[in-house]
Write a structure and sequence with these properties.
Layout (H helix, E strand, L loop, with lengths): L2 E4 L18 E4 L5 E5 L9 E6 L41 H12 L33 H14 L22 E4 L4 E7 L4 E5 L12 H7 L28 E2 L5 E5 L2 E8 L2 H7 L6 E8 L7 E9 L8 E10 L5 E9 L10 E2 L5 E4 L5 E8 L15 E10 L14 E13 L11 H9 L2 E11 L5 E8 L9 E10 L2 E9 L5 E9 L5 E11 L3
Parallel strand pairs: 1-2
Antiparallel strand pairs: 2-3, 3-4, 5-6, 6-7, 8-9, 9-12, 10-11, 11-19, 12-18, 13-17, 13-19, 14-15, 14-16, 14-18, 20-25, 21-24, 22-25, 23-24
Length: 534
């Protein structure tokens, strides 16, 4: 390669050199400083190319110093000088610098992975906005703010609200509200489209059970309801009407009163009734058509006596039922009478509430729930007749003498229907327990049974007495009172000389005396009832 150097250059730019030999270098030693190189005319017709001009940034960097401009694409394993640890300027960061810096900052432990990180110390995160309900991290501030907002929005202790109409300002999803009237806990539910209050304890199945009532309901649904014949399906005495005070009506339900005109019956529920109740099970209802008397001692009620007072003593119980009035808006009173039985010198019984409770009925079947506190039996003396009980009582009308115990319903007249009565231990009304018909009947037969008896015997000519025993399908509560009606005889004359009960109410014994021609077959037919009602 040959080179030619122009010397003694002035401050004025020299004119470009003429054609140079290929590879020849020509330098203009002035300002600006320019370097030319000779090239074949096939590359450039002038025979030269400008390599460098001090007034125009070139595409090359000096060996030391300089700043890269624009996008840079380095090929291969390009290396650079590693800056000192802690350097924080625009120097090129080599891989060695980065590794050293990460080790110094993170203490050699690397960093938390994106998946399932395990954080130590006091890690921080952005606090989501109040009411946020997605997968954002809930910081301690978010939790504290949400709890504070929820608590501040709840009604004050002891607040009374109508079921289904909470006065909670700006309710938030997940917020709880307890209805002190209905005794129901509600939670604010958001389905993504709208919000509403839903019962928090009306839960099916054990997986989400919140109360022991829910657990009892899930484990067989048998035994929560201490009321027998709650649906009025068992009617061994018929369907009525019953108009005589002091009479049993639908099984286990006794009606009584003074001076009032009453007519109890088991009536068919209508499709409208079932729609209002929300249950296709409703087939029969207990109906009372009554006219209240203005006398102070007048009243009328229906009651079911629950066997063995100790079962409820010292407990809080909830009574729930559906009821409606055919005309107007009469009140229905409710109370529970605690009896320590008879025989010996039992303690005096009384109403568990000096002032009973009452609900205002409408023309629509509605479920009502009332809570009662049953006094303890501590220090009480029970009678020897084993007939102590608690009597769940529904008052339809009452003069001044019994008005407080009747819930201050006063003297009134009307037609009232009741269905689905439940009494359970606890302060929350759970879903109605609807017993299997066989189980329901056996509960009622413990207190009252009916039967038919046909006896065929051979006459011996003279009067002869035969004895037969009919076993009862259910052992009765106590030795029953048995009444027979044997009026039909064929082939001779027959009469019931005596009817009695076997030991502990397990069977009925018939002593039948017959007479007729010797060898004649004598048939005796009849019906009987056995009562061990409280």
């Amino acid at each position: 390669m040959t080179a030619r150097t122009q010397q003694n250059r002035t401050t004025t730019n020299n004119a470009p050199p003429g054609a140079l030999l290929p590879g020849q270098i020509y330098a203009e030693m002035g300002t600006p400083f320019r370097v030319w190189v000779g090239v074949p005319t096939s590359i450039d017709a002038s025979g030269r190319k400008l390599l460098s001009d001090s007034t125009v940034p070139g595409p090359y960097l000096p060996v030391a110093g300089g700043t890269m401009q624009g996008p840079v694409a380095l090929a291969g394993n390009t290396t650079a000088i590693t800056p000192a640890p802690g350097d924080n300027d625009t120097s090129v960061a080599t891989t060695a610098f980065v590794n050293t810096h990460v080790t110094n900052v993170l203490g050699g432990s690397g960093f938390a992975p994106i998946a399932s990180p395990v954080l130590t110390g006091d890690p921080k995160a952005p606090t989501p906005a109040l009411g946020d309900a997605d997968t954002s991290i809930a910081t301690t501030k978010f939790v504290a703010d949400t709890l504070s907002s929820t608590l501040s929005a709840l009604p004050p202790p002891g607040a009374t609200m109508a079921p289904g109409t909470p006065t909670v300002p700006t309710p938030l999803p997940g917020q709880l509200w307890f209805d002190t009237v209905g005794g129901q806990l509600y939670v604010r539910y958001d389905d993504g489209t709208s919000q509403q209050w839903v019962p928090a304890t009306n839960i099916a199945g054990l997986a989400n059970a919140a109360t022991k009532q829910d657990v009892a309901a899930a484990m067989g649904n048998v035994g929560r309801n201490l009321i027998h014949n709650p649906l009025f399906n068992i009617a061994q005495r018929g369907a009525g009407p019953w108009t005589t005070l002091g009479t049993y009506t639908s099984d286990r339900w006794f009606m009584n009163g003074s001076a009032d005109a009453i007519s109890f019956s088991v009536a068919l529920a209508s499709d409208t009734d079932r729609t209002q109740i929300g249950d296709e099970t409703a087939g029969l209802v207990l109906q009372n058509v009554f006219t209240g008397n203005a006398g102070a001692a007048a009243y009328n009620f229906a009651v079911q006596y629950i066997e063995s007072a100790r079962r409820l003593c010292g407990n809080t119980v909830t009574v729930s039922f559906w009821a409606k009035a055919s005309v107007g808006t009469p009140k229905l009173g409710a109370n529970i009478y605690q009896s320590f039985g008879t025989g010996g010198s039992p303690s005096t019984g009384g109403w568990v509430s000096a002032t009973g409770q009452a609900v205002q009925l409408t023309g629509t079947f509605t479920r009502y729930a009332l809570t009662f506190t049953i006094p303890s039996a501590s220090g009480k003396t029970f009678g020897t007749a084993a007939n102590d009980s608690h009597g769940l009582t529904f008052f339809f009308s009452s003069g001044s003498t019994n008005n407080a115990a009747a819930g201050n319903i006063g003297v009134q007249s009307g037609t009232v229907r009741i269905w689905g009565v439940q009494l359970e231990i606890g302060n929350v009304a759970t879903p109605l327990e609807k017993p299997d018909p066989r189980y329901d009947l056996s509960n009622c037969q413990r207190f009252y049974q009916i039967g038919q008896q046909q006896q065929q015997m051979q006459s011996q000519g003279a009067a002869t007495t035969y004895t037969t025993i009919f076993p009862l399908p259910v052992t009765m509560r106590a030795t029953p009172t048995i009444i027979g009606n044997f009026t039909t005889q064929i082939g001779g004359t027959g009469s019931v000389a005596g009817i009695g009960s076997t030991t502990a109410g397990t069977g009925v014994q018939f002593n039948i005396a017959i007479s007729g021609a010797t060898g004649n077959a004598v048939n005796v037919f009849g019906t009987w009832t056995a009562s061990a009602d409280l």
